[in-house]
């Protein structure tokens, strides 16, 4: 069963561009090296550019583990963690109860 996860966090205003660069650097790895990551999207709030949301759909638990334990994730964490403001990243897993397309 696919695992859908949302990660939410805020960063300091001074860290916004650094985090956006880190996301841009991270994406090629996910595309090339994580076939079990069906979907990865990173969003920045329009009304609060310090707020970021990442959306993942993983094939299974093995795909989650492959993602979480990768060197690329460690590099991304090293980039955004010093910029966090208002608390840690909050990860929430979801079950799809309806969508388009089905």
Précis, in short:
The chain is α+β, with helices and mostly antiparallel strands. Helix content is 35%, strand content 28%. The protein has helices at residues 16-33, 61-68, 71-80; strands at residues 3-10, 37-44, 51-58, 90-94.
Q: What do you see in this structure?
A:
- With 102 residues, this protein is of the alpha+beta class.
- It has helices spanning 16-33, 61-68, 71-80, and strands at residues 3-10, 37-44, 51-58, 90-94.
- The protein has a four-stranded antiparallel sheet with strand order 2-3-1-4, with helices on one face.
- The radius of gyration is 14 Å and the shape is globular.
- The protein starts with a strand and ends in an 8-residue tail after the last strand.
- The mean pLDDT is 96.
Which key terms come to mind for this protein?
102 residues, alpha+beta, four-stranded antiparallel β-sheet, 3 helices, 4 strands, globular
Outline the secondary-structure elements.
Blueprint (H helix, E strand, L loop, with lengths): L2 E8 L5 H18 L3 E8 L6 E8 L2 H8 L2 H10 L9 E5 L8
Helix pairs in contact: 1-3
